[in-house]
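step: validate -> pass
step: tokenize input -> pass
step: predict -> running
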Amino acid sequence: MTTELNLRLLPSDNELYRDIIKPGQYIRTLHPYGYVYRLPEGAEVHTVRHQAHLLSHAEREQFTEKITIENEGVDDKITAAFTAGLLLGRYQPGFWKSEEQLHPLAAAGSLITFSHDSSALASAYLRERTLVDTQMEIMALVDAPANIKRPQYLAAWAEKSGKKYGYDVQVLDKAACEAEGLGALLAVNRGSEDPARFIIMQYKYQETGAAAGAGEGTEQDQTPLRKIAIIGKGITFDTGGVSIKGSQNLHLMKSDMGGAAAVFGTMEAIAKLKVKAHVIGIVPATDNSVDALSIKPSDVITGHSGKTIEIIDTDAEGRLVMSDGLSYANKYFQPDYLLDIATLTGSAVRTFGYECGALMSKNQAMSDALLAAGTASGEKLWPLPTWDAYRAGLDSDVADIKNYSGRPINGAIDAFKFLEFFTDEHPAFAHLDIAGVALKQGPFAKDRQATGFGMRLLVEWLEGL
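step: predict -> pass
step: emit ->
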């Protein structure tokens, strides 16, 4: 086979092949060996990245290890995004197959070059490559089978990433969780063979080089970094507990740590990109299994906050473990912004389908910034109401709050109101429910496959603060 592939990008208004290639489509060519792709009208970075991913996946058997991209007249960020999409085509979930066929771009020595290179393109490509590599890592985490992806596996992943990219990682084992009073996490963990882990990651931007030696008294020195705490749901498999789920699609509950994956990816990405922020990522990790020791509906537990919770439904476990994460973040870090992200409710899926995540926040400026970051990154969000009238459904006769109102029609908002209860009325709190977008049916796998949703959105938001 030809050792080099030529991939030509055409602006949407380019006259070449105008009658043959419609915007957003491509043709295969023999001389030179490769493809001609016409950019869509008003091309956006995330759209072009996705279309290049489709191309790379569909045509992987025709690809070679060396590709030249002809990018004359094409914006550098668009070119870089297209290249990132080609690299996303390397991802496949079949790590445990006895025979794995690698994408040519995954081979050692693979190379992508550009006909029109520049420092701006090099910078844009480096950023895209950085994000793609981390995105593929967290996709692999979400797609991993539950017997491998146990709480200690997630903790080891975080420790390895922190050591490699220079951010701090602390892992609380079961004894440390007990000493800390992480009662909600430990309650969910009662039915598991694996002890819970509570993973705390911390990244703080540090000036380097000339900027670091500028001396005290500069304007930059006088501006403290904003502190952001992000909590990700780390349920490595969710049976529903005693309130057990049905068997249909139960195997997909290995993805119930999609929020944790987004936090892991965000922490790694901002450390690699050296984003100017102080970010704390927290992942309470356990599975939710059925056992004689499992918590039961009617139980009353005490969380890290000291507040008591009546268990109505053991399948509403994600909000339990995250309530401990929110309480811990407030107690030890006093963040300027507090956010959680989780594959939390079927209600969010029934409301928005598989097109966007649900956003709930009473802070309008924070909500607007997250919506804008979602649009820019291609990981879209849309708001749901946060009215206090919904809180009455969580009133309990026997405890400070119950974990489920029994009204699935507003289940996503229920979850927000429950989590809000553990934020100490934080003025800048947001909740993201990504149940419909962390895992998707599509052209890249026979079954549903991880998307890595949340990482790009959160990086975009953090860079804009």
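step: describe -> Residues 120 and 157 are 33 Å apart (CA to CA).
step: cleanup -> pass
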